[in-house]
Design goal:
Elements: E1 17-20, H1 22-25, H2 27-30, H3 36-49, E2 53-58, H4 78-85, E3 93-99, H5 105-108, E4 119-124, H6 129-141, E5 145-150, H7 158-169, E6 175-180, H8 187-202, E7 207-212, H9 219-229, E8 233-236, H10 250-256, H11 264-280, H12 289-296, H13 302-309, H14 315-325
Parallel strand pairs: 1-2, 1-8, 2-3, 3-4, 4-5, 5-6, 6-7, 7-8
């Protein structure tokens, strides 16, 4: 039987909201060392392009991470964000990510009334969900929109995933994200997982988001597959900038989504102005054979990142090394 799908290629769903994660996921490429010019222009470009949310980076603990080793978007101090957006007198909403175990959330996440931030995104591994729920409830009580990303879900067995989803659907999170951390999923798997997440979320009226990585050049395909089934929050980055193989291109999403509020042209101008320069400065991301291999084998990309840093091209030997780890 043909699956029911939401929307068509010539219509648009107003429930779909687009998130630019360039500063956060892309920051993993260059230790968040973006210039203020880049960040300001990206903020203005997102507004002109009709993007719904802009993620400025992490709310990382300064007790854990050396402030001298990272740019300011690793920490997203209130003053730093306001230096770019002022009081953010626009329709674009501001987001930050808080990793379980790496964020002093009670101290560093202010009351919403005192902050220009609109949304807190909690990132958790399956075994950290009780702490994630504490962070979700803290952010919700402070007045924020809240989402939760279950990371490395391709490594999670069915029972634990079901149990985790059941716990999160009872939490204060507004959106639960399906995350393909290792770029290991194929559209068929995304279909079944999206259905699983949607069915779990339906009990409490929550929404589902999709965050895809591009190890097998499937980030865009997997993203639009999840959207077609009913996911309604979607992440992308400028030219796919992100750790390793990177993410779904926000340019692709702006071109695909039919909402008349979205405008690809400002984003293309931004790409032309900044992406060649970033790459010329030695920032490396995007599809490559080592990332393909880690995606095929559902492995963390750290080994592929090191392989590329070492200047290796012995792909067959690397493949055997990965198989040995399996």
């Amino acid at each position: 039987m043909e699956e029911n799908k939401n929307g068509t290629l010539v219509s648009f769903r107003p429930d779909i909201k687009l998130m630019d994660c360039t500063l956060r996921d892309g920051g993993l490429v260059n230790n968040f060392a973006f210039t203020d010019e880049f960040v300001t222009d990206l903020y203005r470009t997102n507004i002109r392009s009709g993007v719904d949310y802009m993620e400025f980076g992490y709310k990382a603990s300064k007790d854990i991470f050396d402030v001298n080793a990272f740019g300011k978007w690793k920490f997203c101090d209130e003053e730093a964000i306001r230096s770019i957006v002022g009081n953010n007198e626009s329709d674009l909403k501001i987001s930050v990510m808080a990793d379980v175990g790496r964020t002093d959330y009670k101290r560093d996440i202010l009351e919403r009334k005192d902050s220009v931030i609109d949304m807190v995104r909690v990132a958790t591994y399956i075994h950290q969900i009780p702490t994630a729920i504490a962070m979700i409830e803290d952010a919700k009580s402070k007045g924020y929109e809240v989402t939760v990303n279950i990371m490395a879900v391709s490594k999670v067995n069915d029972k634990n995933l079901n149990d985790g989803l059941n716990l999160l659907t009872e939490s204060g999170a507004d959106v639960i994200y399906l995350v393909d951390s290792f770029g290991a999923f194929y559209p068929e798997q995304i279909r079944s997982l999206t259905d699983l997440y949607l069915n779990a979320a339906a009990k409490s009226g929550k929404k589902i988001g999709i965050h895809a990585h591009n190890n097998q050049q499937l980030a865009f395909a997997n993203t639009i597959e999840a959207l077609s089934l009913g996911a309604s929050m979607v992440d992308g980055t400028v030219s796919g900038m992100g750790r390793g193989a990177g993410n779904c291109f926000i340019e692709s999403l702006l071109g695909f989504l039919r909402n008349p509020k979205y405008n690809l042209i400002p984003m293309m101008k931004f790409v032309a102005a900044y992406i060649p320069q970033l790459k010329a400065e030695g920032n490396v991301w995007g599809y490559d054979i080592p990332y393909l291999l880690t995606g095929i084998l559902n492995s963390h990309p750290s080994s592929a990142i090191q392989f590329i840093k070492d200047g290796r091209t012995d792909y067959t030997a690397f493949y055997q090394e990965l198989l040995d780890l399996e």
